[in-house]
């Protein structure tokens, strides 16, 4: 049994996962409402909240799984990329638990964690496949040849797709985090009402900053009443442009690859239009798209454990290695 711990951003999460990928518990304490008034995550606020929540969240993960620390064989924890102060809370908790129990510790890369959300539960996806990882901090196309490793085919040159959703939501006066809000409002709007540009970038990369600017100009041209009336159309058209860019590039990557199969992970994989646009793709289960610790425990099945007590000097890292 693997105890997973994730504190890279504003979710404090712990999970217990079996060696075969069975999710025995997955507890996620979101701090979103705490950061909402600032319109984004405040790193220092996040670190302090992780400190308050990490103990209770781990305890709840154990209780929900009907397990105790005696049942845990290894501890898995996100080491990066993410907010360093936030990561250090989870990493320190993981080290303390592993040290106290003389257990091995598996440091996990958060991006590998997102991909490993496909290796959980009953409908596990087998490589090879081309994977779109679209989250709040990243937008990547990955060639996944085997579990535990991948090769980058492309990435965003500026904003991540989730960031584009969040910034667009802010321009439209919607709450934070904005992806789910736009997803909901877009259902009431006309996706063809506005034509927003899909950036033409060479190779298999993405760009979303021009799209955000286009929305800014569209919103600026409207008075308060008009914005109120057109908000759903703007949301639907903006979402359509992001989905087009993501689905289009994923298809191009798949056509160039021998893998054949396609998959989507990360917070944006929860988007209903993206799911609809890619009926042949494997998606991570909805609850495991945004940050969680089950995916971190899952990734630990395919990474090397560090024996007690060699991991005590491990440090966190902020950006992708
Ligand atoms: N239904 C949805 N439609 C579109 N975007 C969504 C939806 N649900 C969540 N998101 C977006 O997903 C992002 C959060 O995803 P996730 O938790 O994987 O990202 P992160 O951990 O912040 O970033 P990273 O994984 O790159 O470090 C946010 O930007 C949010 O707006
Ligand atoms: Mg994430």
UniProtKB/TrEMBL annotation:
<protein>
    <recommendedName>
        <fullName>tRNA N6-adenosine threonylcarbamoyltransferase</fullName>
        <ecNumber>2.3.1.234</ecNumber>
    </recommendedName>
</protein>
<keyword id="KW-0819">tRNA processing</keyword>
<dbReference type="Pfam" id="PF00814">
    <property type="entry name" value="TsaD"/>
</dbReference>
<dbReference type="InterPro" id="IPR017861">
    <property type="entry name" value="KAE1/TsaD"/>
</dbReference>
<feature type="binding site">
    <location>
        <position position="114"/>
    </location>
    <ligand>
        <name>Fe cation</name>
    </ligand>
</feature>
<feature type="binding site">
    <location>
        <position position="110"/>
    </location>
    <ligand>
        <name>Fe cation</name>
    </ligand>
</feature>
<feature type="domain" description="Gcp-like">
    <location>
        <begin position="22"/>
        <end position="297"/>
    </location>
</feature>
<feature type="binding site">
    <location>
        <position position="271"/>
    </location>
    <ligand>
        <name>substrate</name>
    </ligand>
</feature>
<keyword id="KW-0408">Iron</keyword>
<feature type="binding site">
    <location>
        <position position="183"/>
    </location>
    <ligand>
        <name>substrate</name>
    </ligand>
</feature>
<dbReference type="GO" id="GO:0002949">
    <property type="term" value="P:tRNA threonylcarbamoyladenosine modification"/>
</dbReference>
<feature type="binding site">
    <location>
        <begin position="133"/>
        <end position="137"/>
    </location>
    <ligand>
        <name>substrate</name>
    </ligand>
</feature>
<feature type="binding site">
    <location>
        <position position="166"/>
    </location>
    <ligand>
        <name>substrate</name>
    </ligand>
</feature>
<feature type="binding site">
    <location>
        <position position="291"/>
    </location>
    <ligand>
        <name>Fe cation</name>
    </ligand>
</feature>
<dbReference type="GO" id="GO:0005506">
    <property type="term" value="F:iron ion binding"/>
</dbReference>
<dbReference type="InterPro" id="IPR000905">
    <property type="entry name" value="Gcp-like_dom"/>
</dbReference>
<dbReference type="InterPro" id="IPR022450">
    <property type="entry name" value="TsaD"/>
</dbReference>
<dbReference type="GO" id="GO:0061711">
    <property type="term" value="F:tRNA N(6)-L-threonylcarbamoyladenine synthase activity"/>
</dbReference>
<comment type="similarity">
    <text>Belongs to the KAE1 / TsaD family.</text>
</comment>
<keyword id="KW-0963">Cytoplasm</keyword>
<keyword id="KW-0479">Metal-binding</keyword>
<comment type="function">
    <text>Required for the formation of a threonylcarbamoyl group on adenosine at position 37 (t(6)A37) in tRNAs that read codons beginning with adenine. Is involved in the transfer of the threonylcarbamoyl moiety of threonylcarbamoyl-AMP (TC-AMP) to the N6 group of A37, together with TsaE and TsaB. TsaD likely plays a direct catalytic role in this reaction.</text>
</comment>
<keyword id="KW-0808">Transferase</keyword>
<keyword id="KW-0012">Acyltransferase</keyword>
<dbReference type="InterPro" id="IPR043129">
    <property type="entry name" value="ATPase_NBD"/>
</dbReference>
<dbReference type="GO" id="GO:0005737">
    <property type="term" value="C:cytoplasm"/>
</dbReference>
<feature type="binding site">
    <location>
        <position position="179"/>
    </location>
    <ligand>
        <name>substrate</name>
    </ligand>
</feature>
């Amino acid at each position: 049994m693997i105890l997973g711990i994730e504190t890279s951003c504003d979710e404090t999460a712990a999970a217990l996962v079996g060696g075969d990928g069975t999710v025995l518990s997955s507890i996620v304490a979101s701090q979103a409402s705490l950061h909402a008034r600032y319109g984004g995550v405040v790193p220092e606020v996040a670190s302090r909240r992780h400190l308050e929540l990490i103990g209770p969240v781990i305890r709840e993960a154990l209780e929900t799984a009907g397990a105790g620390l005696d049942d845990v064989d290894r501890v898995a924890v996100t080491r990066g990329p993410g907010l360093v102060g936030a990561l250090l809370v989870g990493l320190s908790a993981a080290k303390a638990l592993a040290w106290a129990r003389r257990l091995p510790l598996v440091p996990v890369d958060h991006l590998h964690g997102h991909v490993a959300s496909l290796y959980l539960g009953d409908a596990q996806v087998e490589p090879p496949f081309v994977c779109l990882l679209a989250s709040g901090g990243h937008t990547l196309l990955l060639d996944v040849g085997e579990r535990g490793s991948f090769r980058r085919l492309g990435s965003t040159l500026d904003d991540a797709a989730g960031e584009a959703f969040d910034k667009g939501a802010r321009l439209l006066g919607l709450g934070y985090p904005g992806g789910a809000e736009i997803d909901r409002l877009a259902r009431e709007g006309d996706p063809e009402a506005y034509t927003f540009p899909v950036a033409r970038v060479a190779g298999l990369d993405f760009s979303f900053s021009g799209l955000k600017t286009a929305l800014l100009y569209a919103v600026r041209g409207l008075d308060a009443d008009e914005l109120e009336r057109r908000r759903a159309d703007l949301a639907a058209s903006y979402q359509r442009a992001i989905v087009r860019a993501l689905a289009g590039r994923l298809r191009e990557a798949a056509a160039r690859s021998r893998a054949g199969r396609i998959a989507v992970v990360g917070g944006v994989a929860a988007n209903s239009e993206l799911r609809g646009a890619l009926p042949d793709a494997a998606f991570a289960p909805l609850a495991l798209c945004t940050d969680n610790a089950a995916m971190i425990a899952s990734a630990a099945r395919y990474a090397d454990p560090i024996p007690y007590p060699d991991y005590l000097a491990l440090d966190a890292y902020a950006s992708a290695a």
